[in-house]
Amino acid sequence: xxxxxxxxxxxxxxxxxxxxxxxxxxxxxxxxxxxxxxxxxxxxxxxxxxxxxxxxxxxxxxxxxxxxxxxxxxxxxxxxxxxxxxxxxxxxxxxxxxxxxxxxxxxxxxxxxx
Amino acid sequence: xxxxxxxxxxxxxxxxxxxxxxxxxxxxxxxxxxxxxxxxxxxxxxxxxxxxxxxxxxxxxxxxxxxxxxxxxxxxxxxxxxxxxxxxxxxxxxxxxxxxxxxxxxxxxxxxxx
Lengths: 114, 114
What we know:
The complex is a heterodimer.
Chain A: E1 3-6, E2 11-14, E3 19-21, E4 23-26, E5 32-38, E6 44-50, E7 56-59, E8 62-65, E9 75-77, E10 86-96, E11 99-104, E12 108-113
Parallel strand pairs in A: 2-12
Antiparallel strand pairs in A: 1-4, 3-9, 5-6, 5-10, 7-8, 8-9, 10-11, 10-12
Chain B: E1 4-7, E2 10-13, E3 19-25, E4 31-38, E5 42-51, E6 54-57, E7 64-70, E8 73-78, E9 87-94, E10 103-105, E11 109-113
Parallel strand pairs in B: 2-11
Antiparallel strand pairs in B: 1-3, 3-8, 4-5, 4-9, 5-6, 7-8, 9-10, 9-11
């Protein structure tokens, strides 16, 4: 079945450091790929998405490129802030037996120190 | 923000008692999902629905049942709660396909089974 693997955390960085969170996937067909962010005590919210190969999703300084050849969708940000501290989830969406079932990675906790 | 609410936000119950969690949406989205979130496991799908009275099992459905009698409501029932069902439960909605495809999440229900 479909699966998403993302790097384990926590990832601890100083403010203004460069961020990469790795995400790889296995899926049949051509899934859409997503990054969701969860701030403490809240539900997940969409950060960015890409729907086809070579698409780049971007939002709030975060970027990720849909790489079909390496089945990857790594999240990057050039300069993190304390307010970026959260848990980040990589996800894919695909159709299975006619139903739409999103699949999530286990999440990566990011801690940014001043 | 998408109109999705979960109730209750917090619940403490005893082993063996029935518990029902409610998810209500005002977006008229076709798909609704129940996930549980546990440390080290990320988000795991319990059940989902793709229309009124159309539901199916996710990867961790044992001990849970669901019902969807109206488009806007999706109920999750623990028939006889166990301590292993202590978790944070999230409802999500989606209207798959197209450029606007994404999941909207509720704020979660913290359930403690003593």
